[in-house]
Write a structure and sequence with these properties.
With about 350 residues, the chain is α/β, with parallel strands linked by helices. It contains twelve helices and 14 strands. It has two domains: about 200 residues, Isopropylmalate Dehydrogenase (3-Layer(aba) Sandwich); about 140 residues, Isopropylmalate Dehydrogenase. The structure holds 3-isopropylmalic acid (IPM) and magnesium ion (MG).
């Protein structure tokens, strides 16, 4: 039995999640699988009933599941001081990371040649073929989870801490990923200034000794963002500490042309992994039936691949997405007036992906 906690959350979460579940049901039938879905409330969606963004009931559900399919949380930018939205992302996203001990975050940025018009970089820079950059972000340490304090009204403090064990864990994961891909790994730090970065680099260099086939390159984070804009194709797997990974993955997320194309996976030390779109809850387009469900659908395929080792099923979903891209179906975020392209809504996009998973 594969127990999946379904947490659609806020904004477009509910509508894109419906499409991901539709795709998973199609895969269930095709591959004769059985998923057991249980829905739970998180974020603003949990607030009216629980006055809490991550209620105990949802925490219990999460801990009793094999994998978590997460939507998105958060409310409109102009309503952030309302109790429903105040600290909503922090209370739900950071709390679930902590509860599940999520340490390794995969943020692939797949560049589809069909969407190159939406990539802000010139094609002389991106080239005209598909490629993918995989950002691996450390998710449990660094400045995010150090002490945060406000000693006086005029001073504030956030402490960044890393230990060898935490870095060694993500380093091993990053080298293993590089082994399965191009055998090239870029580790990002700020070792010219930060002590935590010096330890990070030391551990990556130590780990490199166990992977002689992998070419490790250490790049300072400021230089990294320059290089990513100037020549993204030189990179394949990029490993970052928590804060740098947050920023670097936002840079790579613009290359595919829309956040609506990006799934992600976070692996935890309880073996309950979490899968979510890289984009947010997009309250401005919520409920209109126009959101791109592909990010949620690709998050579901990552779940099949990584939590349940259902490689064929995951491949079937990813191939169906590529097929639909080739066939010219586009939600508004990736649509332009051009021959052969057809503007569709959330549900039609989900249907088209299902139709390409043949029974
Ligand atoms: C992300 C987000 C979160 C983070 C926020 C919402 C806490 O930006 O997942 O990248 O900073 O990790
Ligand atoms: Mg972020």
């Amino acid at each position: 039995m594969m127990k999946i906690a379904v947490l659609p959350g806020d904004g477009i979460g509910e509508e894109v999640m419906k499409e991901a579940l539709k795709v998973l049901k199609k895969v269930e039938a095709k591959f004769n699988l059985h998923f057991d879905f249980t829905h739970g409330l998180i974020g603003g969606a949990a607030w009216p009933q629980y006055k809490n963004h991550f209620p105990q009931e949802t925490q219990d559900l999460v801990l009793d599941s094999d994998a978590i399919l997460f939507g998105s949380v958060g409310g409109p930018v102009d309503a952030q001081s309302e109790p429903k939205w105040k600290d909503c992302e922090k209370n739900s996203i950071l709390s679930i990371r902590k509860l599940l001990g999520l340490t390794v975050n995969l943020r692939p940025a797949p560049i589809y040649k069909e969407l190159l018009d939406f990539c802000p970089l010139k094609t002389e820079i991106t080239g005209t073929e598909n490629f993918e950059i995989l950002v691996i972000r450390e998710l449990s340490g660094g400045i995010y989870f150090g002490e945060h304090s406000r000693p006086t009204v005029d001073t504030a403090k956030d402490v960044a801490e890393y230990d060898r064990k935490t870095i060694a864990h993500i380093a091993k994961f990053a080298f293993e990923s590089a082994m399965k891909r191009s055998k090239k790994l870029t580790s990002v730090d700020k070792a010219n200034v930060l002590e935590t970065s010096r330890l990070w680099r030391e551990v990556f260099e130590d780990t490199a000794k166990e992977y002689p086939e992998v070419k490790l390159e250490n790049v300072l984070v400021d230089n990294m963002v320059q290089q990513l804009v100037k020549n993204p194709r030189q990179f394949d797997v990029i490993a970052c500490p928590n804060l740098f990974g947050d920023i670097v993955s936002d840079l790579t997320s613009v290359l595919p042309g829309s956040l609506g194309m990006l799934g992600s996976a976070s692996f935890g030390n309880k073996n309950i992994h979490l899968y979510e779109p890289s984009g947010g809850s997009a309250p401005d387009i919520a409920g209109k039936g126009i959101a791109n469900p592909i990010a949620q659908i690709l998050s579901a395929s990552m779940m099949l691949r990584h939590s349940f080792h259902l490689v064929d099923a995951a491949d079937a979903i990813e191939n169906a997405v590529s097929e639909v891209m080739k066939n010219g179906l586009r939600t508004g975020d990736i649509y332009q007036k051009k021959e052969g392209l057809k503007l569709v809504g959330t549900v039609e996009m989900g249907d088209a992906i299902c139709a390409n998973i043949s029974l």
